[in-house]
Hints:
about 80 residues, mainly alpha, about 40% helix
Amino acid sequence: SGSFDKDLLAYLEDRFLMSHDKPQTYGTQLQSDGSLYLLFDPKNVDKRREAMEFKESLSTYLKRHGLDYNTEISKFTEEPFP
């Protein structure tokens, strides 16, 4: 029908960026050690995820994978997150 799920396109974009050693946009990719792969502008990631119709925040996604949001995000920013 020519339609697609926006979140699947976001996964594809993040995978492409990761494969080219660039920061991901939506936080969908984990490294081989299970940690979150490099993330662009973590402060606004949930706004981007919402725009792509993700059903969960990055915090929920990471928790589902056994990761702590603050620990993972702190790798990419000096600023504490709530």
